[in-house]
């Protein structure tokens, strides 16, 4: 073990560890190459579509041809990528005849319509919407967590759809999975504090404008959300099941976790809240395990897990914040502590932050694409 790791492990007993690790998921080292896959980005003008391009560049993803697709309204726009100027093309039923990998982030209705068309033309669709997440036979993948779910899918072996999980699910499971592997999670209670980025570029701009207006003494003008967003928080704006009292975002955490872990018996409850943060979600997570697990064991498992960074400095009250995670690849974990409401040693609390646009969407999708090569 490296010296820095040893010192950090020794410091955990006193709660002074502040370790920021690097993601260890393999990065493909190439850029534009004649034998690379032909890639299409669907919904390229949106917040996640733009982040797709950023991540593809950061990770030197290999490609032989790049096609940028969007609605008719955005067609004709110019887009710079890797020193080349591309013209955004209108998404049509003929867009995928020369595509190997299609990264989709254009909404569920677009995915449902065009995803099967792309598959029929031989493309592998990595879809960021909720359209196919719970579809039988469609892998729902976090590469660090369950890459085996898509091991049968490769470029050149026919079309397929792979679903990107919901952002809050990805961020939660990056932190909880290493602990689940040590002591098996029986029950998970999650409260999320979700940023504007989860609702797209227009919501981010609404937060900016409302903040200016309120500080200038003007009334806020809600457009994307039904309530004032600046200096406020409210229940997540997804559809509500009136009978159960849970919204769609909360139920995604429940259903997607069970599918990703292939563990139907885990009990999950969630409360999802929209907070006036620009990007990067935060989550407070309480866990009940089947076995005893200590704080030291939990921190050691988290430190060894790819894509996780630890900020857990009790002496200085320094723990993860959305700003720590903003634009970062890793998910940040801290406030790892025993659940003192329990008489046994089978409960832990933790606080997690992750960039919704990055690991919660674009980065996870590109990591999936890397596994296809």
Automatic annotation (TrEMBL):
GO molecular function, one term: aspartate-semialdehyde dehydrogenase activity
Stored Pfam families: Semialdhyde_dh, Semialdhyde_dhC
Listed EC numbers: 1.2.1.11
Keyword Cytoplasm: no
Keywords: Amino-acid biosynthesis, Diaminopimelate biosynthesis, Lysine biosynthesis, Methionine biosynthesis, NADP, Oxidoreductase, Threonine biosynthesis
Family: Belongs to the aspartate-semialdehyde dehydrogenase family.
NCBIfam families, per database record: asd_B (TIGR01296), PRK14874.1 (NF011456)
Protein name (database record): aspartate-semialdehyde dehydrogenase
